[in-house]
Design goal:
Layout: E1 2-7, H1 13-27, E2 32-37, H2 44-55, E3 59-63, H3 68-80, E4 87-91, H4 95-98, E5 102-103, E6 106-107, H5 108-112, H6 124-129, H7 134-147, H8 149-158, H9 165-179, H10 189-202, H11 206-220, E7 243-244, H12 256-268, E8 280-286, H13 287-291, H14 296-307, E9 311-317, H15 323-330, E10 336-337, E11 340-341, E12 352-355, H16 370-380, E13 384-386, E14 388-390, H17 395-400, H18 407-419, E15 427-430, E16 439-440, H19 442-460, E17 468-472, H20 490-503, H21 514-522, H22 526-529, E18 535-540, H23 541-547, H24 551-558, E19 567-568, E20 571-579, E21 582-586, H25 598-601, H26 609-621, E22 626-630, H27 651-656, E23 661-666, H28 670-680, E24 682-687, H29 699-713, H30 717-733
Parallel strand pairs: 1-2, 1-3, 3-4, 8-9, 8-12, 12-13, 14-15, 17-21, 17-22, 22-23, 23-24
Antiparallel strand pairs: 4-5, 5-6, 7-9, 10-11, 15-16, 18-20, 19-20, 20-21
Helix pairs in contact: 1-11, 7-10, 9-10, 10-11, 14-19, 20-21, 29-30
Length: 743
C-alpha cells in the first residue's frame, strides 16, 4: 500500500516517516509513505521520482502547493493517474489543485466548478446545487473555508473585510465539536471525512499525522488491499495556538508567568540567565515545527544564544500574524505608568526580536501587511531580525550554489521580511540531502548568537565605554578621492556625527571644524610613509597571521602577506586617526580597479591583505563595538561570495565578522542598499539626495538666449539681420559652431 504526500516545507517529513514505521509495526500493512518537498523548482530526476510515486499511490495528499510551475505539472500527473488513486486530499493549495480533491462521492471539481468529474458534464455541479439541503450547503461552505484557508485570508485582506486570522483560528478550534453534529453517512459522509483529516493535519503532532494516514486508509483504501478492522482512530490531539517553547522544558507554556517561574528555577541552580528585559532575546517560532517535533534547528540556535549569556523567550507564532504571540509574551500588560498605560517600548520583555518563521510579520505565507507590521514594531521599538532555515533547498545545494538561496527562499524569507524592517538575514539551519528535518548549522548559529550579543551590548553598555569605528571610502584610489560618496558631503557629515556623539555622552575628541578633521586624516605621517592618509597602526605579518584565520586563503589569490597594497617595510598599514573612543579610518581600495565586478563574480576572488587587515584591526585590536560606513558606497559588501544567504566561506561574512554594521546610505539607491543589508548585515540609515534647482543660464549664454528670442520675434528683415549678427558674434565667443540652416 502506498501513500504519496506532496508538501511545501519540512515539518511533515519526520512525522510521516515515524508514522510509516509505527503503522507497519502495529498493523503489518506494508505501508510505504513517499514524501516530497514542493518548495522549489524540481529537477527532472525529482519529477520522475514523483511521477513514479503518484503512479503507484493509493492515497495522495497535496498540501500548501501554491507555485504555478510545480502546480501545473502536478495537475497533469494527477489527471494521468486518477483511476489509480482511491482518494486525493488537497489542503490549502492553488484553486486548480483544490478542485482535484476526490474522496468517495466528494469531488471538489463538481462541488466548486472548473473540473469535470468522471462521466459528467460541466453543468452537473450547478444542477446538483438546487437539490442540496441547507445543511449540505453549510457543510460545503465550511469545506471551502477551511480547505483553502490561506487564500481565504489573502482575499479578506485584499477586500478589506473585517475578518481576522483570529476569527479563523476560532472557527478551526471549534471544528472538532462541529463535526460531532455532521452525519457520518449519506451525502455529508465524505465532507465529514475531509474535515476530520483537516483537523488531524492542522495539529501536526506525530500522533495526529499517524492518525491522518490511518483515517484515509480506513475510509478509502479497499478492503481487498488491506485489513482495516483493527485500525484505532483517537480524536485529534489539540495544541495551543500560541505558547512558549524551550528544548529543556517538559511541556509548552501558555503564559509568561509559568515560563518565567520554570526558567528562573532552572537557571537559579547555576546562577545564570534571568529574564531581564535588557538581556532577553525574543524568538518567533513556526508552530508546525514545534508540534510535529521537528525542532532541532530551533534548539541549536536557542542553545547558542544562551551560551553567549543571553536569556531566550521562544514564542510559538500563529503563522499568519506574529502580533498575537508578541503581544501575549513579549509585552508586559501588567505594567502601568502614572496617569495611564505605558507604551509598548516601556513594557517590552525583550531586547531584540528574531523571527524564525520565514514569513512576513503580518500575513504569513498568504500576504504581507508591512504597514501593520511597521506600526506594531515601531511602537515596540526593538530591533527586528529574520533568520533563514533551508526548507526549500538542501544544505548541500546551498553550499554549492554561487547564488546562495534559491529564488523562492530569497523572495519569501529575505525580501518580504525586509519590507517589515528585518535585518541580519542569517542561514541558521536546514535539511540535508536525505534528511527528514532541519538541523542546526552550528557555526552559523554561533555567529548569529554572537552578533545578537554585540547588538545587545550597544543597548546596555555605558556610552562613554563604547568604541566606534567610522570608515570613509576612496574610489577611484590615489586621485584625491578620500572621503567621497554619492550625494553626501562626507567630512562635514562625519564632523556633525562626532559632535552628536559627544553631546550624547560618547568619549570622543571633536576637531574644531570639518576642514580640520579632513586635514588630520589626510596629513599626519602620510608623507613620511608615502600613503594617502595618516597611518594609525602598523600590523606586523606575524600579528596578522595570528589574528586572522583566512590568511592562507588570501595568499592563494594575492601571494604572501603583506602584499603590495597598504603595506610598508613588511607591515600592513591601517590608515586613519584615533579620536578618543572613535576611530576614523579609510577603507582600502578594491584591488581590482580595472575590473571591480570581478570581485563579485569570480569564485576564486578575495580581498587583498590590506583590506582584510583593516577589519581584523577593527575587531581584534581596536576592539570596536560597532562600525559605521559613511556614504554610498564601499567595497566590502561587493566582495566574493554568495549573493544572498551567505556562508562562512563568503568574504563579506568573514570581513564583518561579529561587528554590528551601521551604514549611512543614500535613499535613492535601494537596490545596492539591499546588497549592503544582505551581504554585510548592515542597518541602513538613509540620507536624502541634495535638492535640485533650475540653475539657469549665465553671462553670455543668457545674452545668447535673449538674442535668439529677439530674432524669433522680429518681423523687420533689417532688424533680424542685426540681431543675427549679434547671435553669430556671441556664439563664436562661446565656441559654438555657426551656420545658417537651409542656406
Amino acid at each position: 500500500m502506498n501513500v504519496t504526500v506532496l508538501y511545501v516545507g519540512s515539518s511533515l517529513l519526520a512525522p510521516l516517516k515515524q508514522a510509516e514505521r509505527e503503522i507497519n509495526r502495529d498493523y503489518a500493512f506494508d505501508l510505504r509513505v513517499a514524501a516530497h518537498n514542493f518548495g522549489a523548482t524540481l529537477s527532472e530526476i525529482e519529477w520522475r521520482e514523483i511521477d513514479h510515486d503518484l503512479s503507484v499511490a493509493d492515497v495522495v495528499f497535496v498540501i500548501h502547493v501554491m507555485d504555478g510551475e510545480n502546480g501545473a505539472r502536478l495537475l497533469d500527473s494527477l489527471e494521468r493517474y486518477k483511476a489509480r488513486h482511491h482518494a486525493v486530499v488537497v489542503i490549502n493549495c492553488m484553486p486548480d489543485l483544490m478542485r482535484r480533491t476526490r474522496m468517495g462521492k466528494l469531488d471538489f471539481g463538481r462541488m466548486f466548478g472548473g473540473v469535470k468529474g468522471r462521466g459528467d458534464s460541466g453543468t452537473q455541479g450547478r444542477e446538483d446545487a438546487g437539490k442540496k439541503s441547507d445543511k449540505a450547503r453549510r457543510a460545503e461552505g465550511l469545506v471551502g473555508r477551511v480547505g483553502s484557508w490561506m487564500g481565504e485570508q489573502a482575499r479578506a485582506h485584499r477586500s478589506k473585510k473585517k475578518r481576522s486570522h483570529t476569527q479563523y483560528l476560532k472557527l478551526v478550534d471549534r471544528l472538532p465539536g462541529i463535526l460531532r453534529f455532521v452525519p457520518s453517512a449519506g451525502r455529508l459522509r465524505d465532507i465529514k471525512h475531509y474535515l476530520q483529516l483537516f483537523c488531524y493535519f492542522l495539529q501536526p503532532t506525530p500522533a495526529n499525522i499517524r492518525s491522518m494516514l490511518l483515517y484515509a486508509i480506513k475510509h478509502y483504501v479497499p478492503d481487498e488491499i488491506v485489513d482495516k478492522a483493527e485500525i484505532q482512530l483517537p480524536p485529534p490531539e489539540r495544541m495551543p495556538a500560541v505558547a512558549i517553547y524551550h528544548p529543556d522544558a517538559p511541556s509548552l507554556f501558555e503564559s509568561f508567568a509559568a515560563y518565567r517561574k520554570w526558567y528562573e528555577q532552572r537557571n537559579g541552580k547555576s546562577g545564570k540567565l534571568s529574564l531581564d528585559p535588557d538581556m532577553t532575546i525574543g524568538l518567533l517560532l513556526m508552530r508546525p515545527q514545534i508540534v510535529s517535533d521537528t525542532r532541532k534547528a530551533y534548539d541549536g540556535l536557542i542553545r547558542a544564544v544562551e551560551a553567549e549569556g543571553l536569556a531566550v523567550l521562544p514564542a510559538i507564532s500563529t503563522l499568519m500574524d506574529n502580533r498575537e504571540a508578541c503581544g501575549k509574551f513579549f509585552i508586559d500588560d501588567g505594567q502601568k505608568a502614572e496617569g495611564g498605560e505605558q507604551g509598548l517600548e516601556a513594557r517590552s520583555r525583550v531586547s531584540q526580536i528574531v523571527s524564525l518563521t520565514g514569513f512576513s510579520f503580518v500575513g504569513g505565507p498568504a500576504m504581507n501587511d508591512s504597514e501593520a507590521a511597521a506600526k506594531f514594531l515601531r511602537e515596540l521599538n526593538r530591533p527586528f531580525r529574520s533568520a533563514v532555515s533551508l526548507d526549500m533547498q538542501t544544505v548541500e545545494a546551498w553550499r554549492e550554489s554561487q547564488t546562495g538561496l534559491n529564488p523562492v527562499q530569497a523572495g519569501m524569507q529575505i525580501a518580504i521580511p525586509e519590507l517589515d524592517g528585518a535585518t541580519e538575514p542569517f542561514v541558521y539551519g536546514g535539511v540535508g540531502a536525505g534528511a527528514c528535518e532541519p538541523l542546526p548549522l552550528e557555526n552559523r548559529c554561533l555567529r548569529l548568537a554572537r552578533r545578537l550579543k554585540r547588538w545587545n551590548h550597544l543597548q546596555t553598555a555605558k556610552r562613554a565605554e563604547l568604541k566606534l569605528a567610522m570608515l570613509v571610502f576612496c574610489f577611484p584610489p590615489n586621485k584625491g578621492n578620500i572621503g567621497t560618496a554619492a550625494d553626501l558631503d562626507v567630512f562635514p557629515s562625519a564632523w556633525e556625527m562626532l559632535k552628536a556623539l559627544k553631546r550624547d555622552g560618547y568619549e570622543v575628541e571633536v576637531p574644531s571644524s570639518a576642514d580640520e578633521l579632513r586635514l588630520m586624516l589626510l596629513g599626519g605621517n602620510s608623507e613620511n610613509l608615502g600613503t594617502t592618509a595618516n597611518v594609525a597602526y602598523r600590523m606586523s605579518v606575524d600579528e596578522y597571521r595570528q589574528q586572522c584565520p583566512f590568511v592562507e586563503d588570501i595568499e592563494e589569490e594575492w601571494g604572501s602577506a603583506p602584499g603590495a597594497i597598504n603595506s610598508f617595510g613588511g607591515d600592513l598599514l591601517i590608515q586613519g586617526i584615533r579620536l578618543g573612543n572613535v576611530f576614523l579610518g579609510v577603507q582600502p581600495t578594491f584591488g581590482y580597479e580595472g575590473d571591480p565586478m570581478r570581485l563579485l563574480m569570480a569564485r576564486s576572488g578575495a580581498p587583498h591583505h590590506g583590506f582584510m587587515a583593516l577589519y581584523t584591526y577593527l575587531e581584534k585590536v581596536f576592539k570596536a563595538d560597532a562600525v559605521v560606513h559613511i556614504g554610498t558606497h564601499g567595497a566590502m559588501e561587493f566582495m566574493p561570495g554568495k549573493q544572498v544567504g551567505l556562508s562562512d566561506e563568503c568574504w563579506p561574512d568573514r570581513l564583518i565578522g561579529e561587528l554590528p554594521n551601521i551604514y549611512i546610505y543614500s535613499v535613492n539607491n535601494p537596490s545596492e542598499g539591499s546588497i549592503a543589508k544582505r551581504r554585510s548585515y548592515a542597518e541602513l540609515i538613509s540620507y536624502l539626495t541634495p535638492p535640485i534647482e533650475n540653475a539657469g543660464l549665465y553671462k553670455d549664454l543668457a545674452l545668447l538666449k535673449e538674442s535668439l528670442m529677439a530674432y524669433r520675434l522680429a518681423t523687420d528683415e533689417r532688424e533680424r539681420a542685426q540681431v543675427y549678427a549679434t547671435i553669430e558674434e556671441t556664439a563664436r565667443a562661446l565656441n559654438f559652431e555657426v551656420g545658417r540652416a537651409g542656406n
